Amino acid sequence: MNQNAIITGGSRGIGRALALKLGELGYNVVINYRSDSSKALSDELAREIEEKYHVQTLVVKADVSSFEQCRHLVEEAVKRFGDKVDVLVNNAGITNNCNFIDIKPEAYEKVIATNLMSFLHMSHLVLPYMVNHSDKDHQCCIVNTSSVGGMTGVINQADYCAAKSGVIGLSRALALEFAKRGIRVNVIAPGMIMTDMLRGVNQDELHALAATIPEGYIGDVEDIAGALEYILKASYLTGQVISPNGGFVLQ
Ligand code: NDP
Fold it and tell me: What is the DSSP string of 215-242?
């Protein structure tokens, strides 16, 4: 169908599932990663998407907490697929787990830069390649990954919650600003999903918390990929937060 998508933090976890979903839906996919250790994973994912779905892929290393590296990512995407971006998925994210007295300013600045500033940078850089061809009949989409932490508070995650709430505000404002130009902006706010991010925390505490989820279990990356598919197909949906969370947060 000759449509192009960029996903930040596509190498692992939720991002990997979202990249696969983009391929399945027929998009050429630009997969971004940051760590050298994730290069092989990203290359393998790109091969899998090409073989399964017969679309094209591009793998780009960039630390999206830096504006210049976001610019590099977008320039590489445009060089490869032309000046037409149909979908941007801002997904890259990190956590600290630290009380707010002991946390170092550099640590919370990194969380804000990765989980919020990168979403502004990427949207700012990609929107010119959306407005040049979007309209009511051919919509473009930005899909931003927030978190239930952006809708509630989480102990020892003040920086993460601040960033994830910011993502919701950013998305609502961009949704309003670009609605008439055929660009929809929505948010996926996952509850607990089993990825490296959760594997890194104390497992006893995690399972105690999981027992409080009304549906009774930790979610899977496929639950988030399903939300992405819904958002991309839901032409009358903009400025909304979709939160697959097993009932963990009821709005
Ligand atoms: P993972 O830790 O499994 O994966 C994180 C991804 O983000 C990796 O692809 C990583 O790349 C990438 N990344 C991190 N920092 C940067 C950066 N500076 N530049 C480019 N890429 C970067 O996390 P999840 O899959 O669990 O999380 C994905 C998103 O979902 C995040 O925004 C997270 O906050 C959110 N989320 C997750 C929840 C969960 O329970 N898992 C719950 C709610 C929200 P690399 O491999 O190169 O390190």
Answer: T-S-B-HHHHHHHHHHHHH-TT--S-EE
What separation in Å is there between the alpha carbon of 94 and the centre of ligand 1?
A: 6
Position in ligand 1 atom list of the atom nearest CA 11: 9
Does the pTM surpass 0.90? The reply is: yes
Give the mutation target among 195, 224, 249 for probing the ligand 1 site: most ligand atoms within 8 A of CB: 195
The tokens for 220 are: 């899977």
Instruction: Tell me phi and psi for residue 193, to 5 degrees.
Output: -125, 130
Question: If residue 87 lies in a helix (H) or strand (E), which one and from where to where?
Answer: strand 87-90
**For ligand 1, atom 39, which residue shows the shortest CA distance?**
193
**Pocket probe mutation, ligand 1, options 6, 8, 12, 224, max atoms within 8 Å of Cβ:** 12
CB 141 within 8 A of CB 89: no
pLDDT tens, position by position, for the chain (251 residues)? 799 999 999 999 999 999 999 999 999 999 999 999 999 999 999 999 999 999 999 999 999 999 999 999 999 999 999 999 999 999 999 999 999 999 999 999 999 999 999 999 999 999 999 999 999 999 999 999 999 999 999 999 999 999 999 999 999 999 999 999 999 999 999 999 999 999 888 889 889 989 999 999 999 999 999 999 999 999 999 999 999 999 999 86
Which residues are designated catalytic? 160
The CA–CA distances, whole Å, from 109 to 24, 106, 171 equal 36, 5, 21
